[in-house]
Design goal:
With 158 residues, this protein is α/β, with parallel strands linked by helices. The protein is built from four helices and seven strands; from the N terminus they run βαββαβαβαββ. A seven-stranded parallel beta sheet has the order 3-2-1-4-5-6-7, with helices on one face. The chain is globular and about 40 Å long. The protein starts with a strand and ends with a strand. The mean pLDDT is 88.
Amino acid sequence: MKDKVVLLIFGEGGHHKEMMLFLDSLPLNHSLTFISIGPDILSPDIEHFYTKDVRDKHSRFKSILKASIGLVKINFLMLKLLTRYKLNGAVSTGPGVALIPFLMLKLLGRKTVFIETFCRFYTRSFTGKIMYKLADRFLVQNKELTALYPNAEYCGRL
């Protein structure tokens, strides 16, 4: 098992872009090994585990069905990752697919970091509302969000 393995969790579109920007912001000489969960590959250098979006933007019924199936799948995936890797923690740019991995890692005493999406200025995301209470560090990219999340850390745009 490799030491200092960090799980990167992201969704499609802007969430994927934010994770790419996060990786680009790291110093070149960092000593971390990354693995990722999401709909697209981040980099050929990062082992990736594919997940689909767990919601349907057009149907609430389909969203509930897809979320239920997605929760089962993500549980099995996390069990696989926890037996294969020594995960030190996780970083997520959303969306809700990160909830189960964060819960599991928190129960194991591992660190979690959530970065609220940069498209939010005056409202909180559904996932952000939960992660604000769950994550060890909660980062916002827009200063306006510090009024909604008083204990958040302002990090600026990624």
